[in-house]
Design goal:
The protein has 414 residues and is of the alpha/beta class. The chain has 16 helices and ten strands.
Length: 414
């Protein structure tokens, strides 16, 4: 207790230099102080919990409307959920259910607030065209910031896998062209090529413009600076071009949405409090340890003949996956799909490289000695080829060989 008391006295600028665990402890002390002050000396606020009355089929709209009518400081108080036509009392389970479901709604592609980043690692970036779908879209981002902050405030991990770029902006950290790798890996490679190589006429890189396509497929050309279409890229200005190109694609084009998201987030967790964290630490506190739910994975898996969920090889396969530590499951999921993270909506939301829903699939491996070989992964399609093992000891050995040294099996990933 004395250590906590000493830590609590430290100013934020000192806390930034501490280890992650100490930062989290300091932040928790600040949160508890905030909770205790919510009902102290001000008639506007009460220590009574806020009751949200939610109809499940309208969970997004009901939650949004009730948050909108609740003053920001009220959110320091406990929230309890009352689901319409459900006989249950919220002793902690219903609020966790609500957090999980509302985050799934907010990050759903059909909601058009966030979209998948073009990266192997699962992450979400703000959809710059959200205003095409909602007149009040900025209020939705404010609401999203409130929900994420409240989840962190209550130590309730959620699958809000914001890109590192977005997390850095939440923390008011400087963003640079290097951060484009968290949003679009192919674009990052292209810009890195420009930076690493001399500009020549043969490269045909062009001028200070970038092309964009809206959801209807209509293409527009954006000038990155005044008269940009007349400014050729050369070795003297290529760093400026790359910086402006990055910001046009992922910063300035969503600045209003980002501003609303930040305002909603910091309405509950002030910048001076969360500002002691870096982007990785904030991600860890928001998302938790990302425990992989085996039953959800199994329920959203399909099989190629002769495999079925009851096939002896498949039963043995899932038994072995279930016996793995969560860290090993993450490594295996990354081997299978390219990402160690599960989408916000669970395994039913796995998507292929074309961003269309593509459930995890296990096909029998039909080439070579298919009762002895290694597992082959097709990460673009969330598919693995599993040998039809007649020796489950061999399956376990080969499975753990992949986990132990995945770099030695890169040839099996397509």
């Amino acid at each position: 207790m004395e250590q906590i008391a000493q830590l609590a006295k430290l100013p934020a600028e000192h806390v930034r230099k501490l280890e992650t665990e100490e930062k989290e402890l300091w932040l928790r002390v600040r949160v508890e102080e905030s909770k205790q002050s919510a009902g102290r000396g001000d008639d506007l606020f009460s220590t009574e919990p806020i009751i949200l009355v939610i109809e499940r089929k309208n969970i997004f709209r009901d939650s949004f409307e009730q948050f909108r009518t609740t003053q920001d400081l009220d959110l320091r108080q406990e929230i309890k959920i009352n689901f319409v036509n459900e006989i249950s009392q919220d002793a902690g389970g219903l609020i966790r259910d609500w957090f999980s479901t509302i985050i799934e709604e907010l990050f759903s592609p059909e909601r058009h607030l966030f979209k998948r980043a073009n990266t192997k690692e699962l992450a979400y970036v703000i959809d710059e065209y959200s205003g095409n779908y909602y007149s009040d879209h900025l209020e939705y981002y404010y609401f999203t910031g409130q929900v994420i902050a409240k989840a962190l405030y209550e130590r309730n991990p959620v699958k809000a896998y914001l890109s590192k770029l977005t997390l850095k902006m939440l923390l008011n950290l400087e963003v640079t062209v290097e951060d484009i790798k968290y949003c679009d890996e192919e674009m990052h490679k292209s810009l890195q090529f420009i930076l690493d190589n001399p500009i020549s006429d043969e490269l045909g890189i062009g001028t200070f413009v970038c092309a964009k396509k809206d959801p209807t497929g209509k293409e527009t050309v954006v000038e990155l600076k005044e008269n940009g279409k007349d400014v050729s890229i050369n070795d003297n200005n290529k760093y400026e071009f790359c910086d402006l190109f990055f910001k046009a694609q992922f910063v300035s084009n969503t600045q209003n949405q980002t501003k609303s998201l930040i305002e909603g987030f910091t309405s509950l967790l002030p910048a001076k409090v969360v500002g002691v964290l870096d982007a990785d630490e904030l991600e860890l506190l928001i998302c938790g340890d990302t425990t992989i739910d085996i039953e959800d994975w199994k329920a959203n898996t399909c099989y190629g003949e002769p495999f079925t969920k009851d096939h002896p090889v498949i039963v043995a396969f899932w038994y072995m996956v279930k016996q793995m530590s969560n860290a090993d499951r993450e490594r295996f999921l990354q081997f299978c799909t390219g990402s160690k993270k599960v989408p916000a909506e669970g395994f039913k939301g796995l998507r292929a490289a074309n961003n269309k829903v593509n459930k995890f699939k296990i096909n029998p491996r039909v080439t070579g000695n298919y009762s002895l070989g290694y597992i082959m992964a097709h990460t673009c399609f969330n598919t693995i080829e599993l040998p039809v093992y007649n020796n489950f000891g061999m399956m376990k050995k080969n499975l753990y060989e992949v986990l132990k040294s995945p770099e030695n099996f890169q040839f099996t990933i397509e």
